[in-house]
Specification:
By secondary structure, the protein is an alpha+beta fold. The protein is about 20% helix and about 25% strand. It has one domain: Trna Endonuclease, Chain: A, domain 1 (3-Layer(aba) Sandwich), CATH 3.40.1350. The protein has three helices and six strands. It has a six-stranded mixed sheet with strand order 1-2-3-4-5-6, sandwiched between helices.
Length: about 130
């Protein structure tokens, strides 16, 4: 079953955002790959999964429900002091939502990777994956 055309515009925009954080490696391959981009920051490497969505999500638990398989695949990557995984969503209006993936759930973050005030901190998750 085909899943539609590749999200070339979305991936191009994601790469532009990622370049503001460091060197970027685009993962050549199919949408079935676990990650689309790798950001090489000064002190860590971030693996990024990019998706388009027709919905703006209010709560991280909604993202976990809608994209549970993508996030579960990303959670397989070991979280260390020098690696991280993020899930990026492009909304229909062209805005973006960004989430840090942890083994216990996800936390919404800013485009630059900083935590959003009130959205939790590295020690706590705002939503949990069941997969």
């Amino acid at each position: 079953m085909k899943r539609g055309r590749p999200p070339l515009l979305t991936l191009r925009e994601a790469k532009e955002i990622a370049l503001t954080r460091g060197a970027v490696i685009a993962i050549p391959g199919k949408r079935s790959d676990a990650f689309d981009l790798i950001i090489c920051e000064e002190h860590r490497v971030i693996f990024i999964r990019v998706r388009r969505t027709l919905t703006q999500f209010t709560w991280p638990v909604e993202v976990l429900h809608q994209y549970r398989y993508d996030i579960a695949r990303c959670q397989r990557l070991p979280v260390t002091n020098v690696t991280a995984s993020e899930f990026w969503l492009r909304l229909p209006d062209g805005n973006w939502q960004f989430f840090l993936i942890q083994h216990t759930g996800i936390i919404e973050i800013e485009a630059n990777g900083r935590y959003i005030q009130g959205a939790g901190h590295p020690g706590e998750s705002t939503a949990h994956s069941r997969d």
